[in-house]
Amino acid sequence: MGLRDEILEQPEAARRQLASDPAPIEALAERLRAESVDSVVIAARGSSDHAAIYAQYVFGVRHQLPVALAAPSITSIYGVEPEFRRALVIAISQSGASPDVVGVLAAARRQGAPTVAITNEPASALAGAAEFVIDLQAGSEQAVAATKTYTTSLLAIARLSAALADSTDRASGTEITTVPEHLAAALVASIEDETREAAAALAAADRCVILGRGFEYATAREWALKLKELARVFADPYSAADFEHGPLALIGPGVPVLAVAPSGLASAGLVELLERLGANGADLTVLSDDAATRAIGARSIGLPPGVPDWLRPIVSIVPAQLFAYHLTRARGLDPESPRNLSKVTRTR
Amino acid sequence: MGLRDEILEQPEAARRQLASDPAPIEALAERLRAESVDSVVIAARGSSDHAAIYAQYVFGVRHQLPVALAAPSITSIYGVEPEFRRALVIAISQSGASPDVVGVLAAARRQGAPTVAITNEPASALAGAAEFVIDLQAGSEQAVAATKTYTTSLLAIARLSAALADSTDRASGTEITTVPEHLAAALVASIEDETREAAAALAAADRCVILGRGFEYATAREWALKLKELARVFADPYSAADFEHGPLALIGPGVPVLAVAPSGLASAGLVELLERLGANGADLTVLSDDAATRAIGARSIGLPPGVPDWLRPIVSIVPAQLFAYHLTRARGLDPESPRNLSKVTRTR
After folding, report:
1. Which of A14, A347, B80, B102 could form a disulfide with B241 if both were Cys (CB 3.0 to 4.6 A apart)?
2. For residues A227 and A329, what is the distance between their CA atoms, to the nearest angstrom?
3. How far apart are CA A20 and CA B98, in angstroms?
């Protein structure tokens, strides 16, 4: 299985997870109903860190919970164990093998905090350290660049959110069942053609800026990481708000702008920024389900319509993955063998 | 006053803040002794976001508190107010003018959470919204790129930490009084000469990677922002741990590596990574107080010795600022007029 096969397998991977035993998520939701928490702490690295950013918006917008992204080195370097009082502690790692991420979870469990591991390896050290384990069910991921383990990590977070909202918001659970078909709709040939054309147009750029906002900030971050690790492009991801605090100076000839700008509450400010950048001559590539927003770009890539805001990041990264794959090839590189990287990174 | 003048003014700005009325910090520490908190939530953007990362390590390592970096758009875009139960809520903004940052603080105060504004404008909307205000006392900052407001923001966080640790750790307060002299030691002519030489050597690169770890991750982030906004260099900052999860693929000819690698607990892993990168032919510039670590680089920039780990980020950014200033000039750009930027950004 190559990278593109794994990208194409994502609807099936999501289906597998949705069909898997819901008991761990239900048990965790049960515990959180009995013993409510004041905040969420998440430990993660790499692509999983972007799943954590998605979780920050999901738990913030849907559950009013502040989310702290743990700095594992506080424990691994400075030997200090945070006090996880009244916090739900989540670790996200496809391999479950990073000792520093395991360390955060083990400390939280010793303290009696509710702990959950979101991992593709239910026999891993991370899973062993957690009270609750959500198995990604992504199947073996061979490519070095994470794709199906990323989208299934987001799906696991969305399922957890739906379980927590169960009594007040039964619609969420139903919305989640539509994720596999939305993923399939993001993988139609017409969208892949657009990613291939955009990649051909941008093959010469070795730098770019990627914009996203709100729920889609996670997509901007993950898209940038794929472009770095696969296509060796210096892709700099920003929320539209932070972008105006300095990095705006980077835009100029030879620095294209990519934007994930689907319809939804976050679109207004971002569309206005894109219009301004376009008027100033920036080379814009827009990823969106909205025709008027797409028209702002010199080129655009489609997204399936009708995906709820809070679930859309699971879907919108998919054409971005295909774009990264085709850009890598257009730049004469091998998407199966990123330079210097290995699949499992055991950071301490 | 130009950018370099403001960089040179930092020892004096720190002295001003240390001489200012300690009442707000003492009153806040008093409230937090009476009513302890389980976590810290920080709202910030731009350079202030890097002060927030410093705070994440300070409160994590010294007070075992998880720190959440607020996503202001959860309120400004999605209209949801997080519940700041048992959290200390800090907003950092030199201008105090960003409506979305003010929004987070105002919501927290309505809920009765202890709120503090760290700002250079004690008459700003942000200061008005906060229960406690720490005035940076940086003096008017004219340059678009933040320098003295950044280091005085870090100093304010360190003072707050020292006040919280008052009963158990009286040494902290004494250590803080040495910050102005350490800042002055980072501004000696021999160090500025090294920044000028390194800038001349790296003037042709339009991309680079910046590494830091632990407390100095904040420095890597802030250094990268200065290079982006002033010198228009795509500077990609990483903790040494995250770096191996993907971005390692970016290193190759024409992509120099800068590292902030002072002595201290975080240095071991970072030094090992730098040795590996050097052995593979990477072009390394090392910012350190340690002679052996400096020798790993093709060139290096000094730091004053003897600065405590937890205070060093206030000092180590200073030669990095000078490097950004000289690199900007070496690249034929004007450090006083970064492209596209204005001083105050009113993001919503």
Report:
1. A347
2. 12
3. 45
Is the CB of residue B324 less than 8 Å from the CB of residue B227? yes
Q: Is the pLDDT of residue A344 over 70?
A: no
Whole-angstrom distance, CA of residue B158 vs CA of residue A262:
41
Q: Which stretch of A235-249, A290-304, B216-230 has the lowest confidence by average pLDDT?
A: A235-249
Q: Mutating which of A59, A74, A149, A273 best tests the B interface, going by the most B Cβ atoms within 10 A? A: A74
Residue A347 touches chain B, beta carbons under 8 Å: yes
Find the helix packing angle between B189-202 and B312-330, rounded to 10°.
50
Q: How far is A21 from chain B (nearest CA, A)?
A: 30
Cβ atoms within 10 Å of A275's Cβ, excluding its own: 13
CA distance A117 to A115: 7
- Return d(Cα A136, Cα A18) in angstroms, integer: 10
The answer to whether ipTM exceeds 0.95 is no
Euclidean distance between CA atoms B107 and B103, whole angstroms: 6
- In this structure, the number of other CB atoms found within 10 A of the CB of residue B279 comes to 9
Whole-number Cα distances in Å, B258 to A60, A149, B7, B246, B327: 35, 32, 20, 18, 13
Nearest to B241 by CA among A339, A77, A5, A252: A77
B12: left (phi over 0), alpha (psi -120 to 50) or beta: alpha
Query: What does the block give as tokens for A320?
Result: 């971005």
Neighbours of B245 (CB within 10 A): 23
Token readout for B134 is 């720490």
A326: left (phi over 0), alpha (psi -120 to 50) or beta: alpha
Distance CA A325, CA A331 (A): 10
User: Considering CB atoms only, which of A85, A217, A236 is closest to B38?
Assistant: A85
For residue A299, the model assigns a pLDDT of 98
Cα separation, A53 vs A313, whole angstroms: 11
Chain-wide mean pLDDT for chain A?
92
A36 to chain B: closest CA residue: B85
The kind and range of the H/E element at B126 are helix B125-129
CB-count burial class (<10 Å; 0-12, 13-18, 19+) for B180: buried
Task: Enumerate residues 6+ apart whose C-beta is below 8 A from A77.
Answer: B213, B214, B265, B266, B269
From the list B47, B56, B241, the residue facing A347 with the nearest CB is B241
Question: What's the rounded mean pLDDT across residues A180-186?
Answer: 98
- Polymer length in residues for chain A: 348
- Rounded-to-5 percentages of helix, strand, coil across chain B: 50, 15, 35
HEC string of A257-296 equals EEEECCCCCCHHHHHHHHHHHHHCCCCEEEEECCHHHHCC
B331 in contact with A at a CB cutoff of 8 Å? Answer: no
Smallest CA–CA separation between B29 and chain A, in Å?
A: 19
Alpha carbon B57 to its chain centroid, in Å, reads 11
A230 touches chain B (CB under 8 A): yes
First-to-last C-alpha distance (Å) of chain A: 30
Burial (CB count <10 Å: 0-12, 13-18, 19+), residue A272: exposed
* Alpha helices for A148-239 (secondary structure H): 148-164, 171-177, 179-185, 189-201, 217-231
Report the Cα B215 to chain-centroid distance in Å. 10
